[in-house]
Design a protein that fits this description.
Distance between the termini: 22 Å
Radius of gyration: 14 Å
Order of helices and strands: EEEHEHHEEH
Strand content: 15-25%
Oligomer: single chain
Structural class: alpha+beta
Shape: globular
Number of strands: 6
């Protein structure tokens, strides 16, 4: 099983980002969107980030436009939205696909390590969340309807 921190992804500015930077931390990886019914979860994600960052926790956001075209903006528009609307300080990376033949390799591994309901691997919608332990392995997968604050106890256990 590959550690999530072994992957390289694209930063919002298009440069290579090495997830090894987050090795030894507890991570919550989320596919996000600006025009989704779950978009207000940015507030809860940011609250978790601020509450636990000093203890070795990071939220990592990956914009995705595969569900109802709810993330149509470019990287600059997404960053501006996140900053101005929700004062997001956690990393938001380049827009990716999470399903299909063009799915980012990171998401292929996340889905493999933590299949969804009834063992299906596909991401069903924006704001699916993956909790990753300090060892870089997925501990839990949460549905889009799971509010960030409902994950706090699980984060506490891993810190």
């Amino acid at each position: 099983m590959t550690a999530i921190t072994d992957f390289h992804v694209k930063a919002a500015n298009g440069t290579d980002a090495d997830l090894a930077e987050f090795a030894g931390k507890v991570l919550l990886i989320v596919n996000v969107a600006s025009k989704c019914g779950f978009t207000p979860q940015y507030e809860g994600l940011e609250a978790l980030h601020r509450q636990y960052a000093s203890r070795g926790f990071e939220v990592l956001g990956f914009p995705c436009n595969q569900f109802g075209a709810q993330e149509p903006g470019n990287a600059e528009e997404i960053a501006t939205f996140c900053s101005l609307t929700y004062d997001v300080t956690f990393p938001v990376f380049a827009k990716i696909d999470v399903n299909g033949s063009a799915a980012d390799p990171l998401y292929a591994e996340l889905k493999k390590q933590a299949p969804g309901f009834l063992g299906t691997e596909g991401i069903k919608w924006n704001f699916t969340k993956f909790l990753v332990g300090k060892d870089g392995k997925v501990v839990e997968r949460y549905a889009p309807t799971t509010k960030p604050e409902e994950i706090a106890a699980d984060i506490e256990k891993l810190l």
